[in-house]
Amino acid sequence: MSTYNKRRQHRTLGVVKLHKEVLRIILPILLIISSLSASAIVVRHDVNDKKYIADATDFAPLATLYVDGAHGTLIKPDWIVTAAHATFCISPDSYLRLNNGYHKVESVFVHKDYQPGKSHDIALIKLVNPISNVKPANLYEQTDELAKITWFIGVGGTGNGLTGQIVDHFENGGVLRKAQNKIEQAEGPLLKFKFDRDDVALPFEGVSGGGDSGGPAYSTIDGMHYLLGISSRVEGGDIGKYGVMEVYSRVSFFKHWIEKITAGEETVQQQLAVPKLARLPAGLTEQILPEVCADISLKPNAV
Fold first, then answer.
1. CATH number, position 182
2. Count of domains for the chain
3. Residues 6 or more apart whose Cβ sits within 8 Å of residue 92
4. Which of 67, 13, 2, 47 lies closest to 292, judged by CA?
5. How far apart are CA 250 and CA 43, in angstroms?
6. What pLDDT, in 10s, does the model give residues 20-71?
7. I want to staple 35 with a disulfide (CB 3.0 to 4.6 A). Which of 62, 85, 247, 299 is the partner?
8. Is residue 279 classed exposed, middle or buried when 0-12, 13-18 and 19+ CB atoms within 10 A define those classes?
9. What's the whole-model pTM score?
10. Contact criterion met (CB below 8 Å) for 77 and 262
């Protein structure tokens, strides 16, 4: 049993019931349906799931935002990029986990043009202290992403293309998986790829499941990781089932924005970003947000 679940057992029955409802129902809706996204791995039905199991060293810049998932990518020693919609419980003094360590948040920058379920689903998180023992991922600068094969990785929900997601990100228990897919659309701020099957599928074809919004789509070239996309949402089908289309925020499109924000000029940052979501994801209210965040936030001293 996780430390998080042990803590919950000591709360009153009413609070436990509330948090079961919030964490078992609202958060999957937030991270999968309302956000129409995530980035854990749903796999081919005809390939053994164990072949998708990943190690943290497969993509060392992977950051985790909450106790049961949601991700970001280290792109500078003190900067992490993620999906805007995944930052609803991230604020100054929050903690992220990366390379088995906890790192304190200094500030959050949500793209000012973020439109939930549509576009500009990107945010940057500034850390109080730089991370020196992990090499950041490189931003992919070219606009030739179409037809490229990309990998993605995460700890959220899983299943296969026939069943869709049948194990949620709580039940997955932090098991890390990675899969690959081919980019079918690269237009404006978005990258898209589809979950194919049988002979047209890649050997380790897969798509996102629930619980890891903000995770990376990346390629490794000459031993260097390049970040191409950021998990945003799904469209055109059921989550995790064959035929569903994945939508990622396109890093090459947002490279200029990223560079402007990370340059650190406060006036420019205020022009291009806001410090938090203007509107909470569906299912969350300002009244229950503190309780939700208290339960899912990472705490370095938790036992």
1. 2.40.10.10
2. 1
3. 105, 106, 107, 108
4. 67
5. 23
6. 444 443 444 444 333 334 445 899 999 999 999 999 899 999 999 998 788 9
7. 85
8. exposed
9. 0.86
10. no
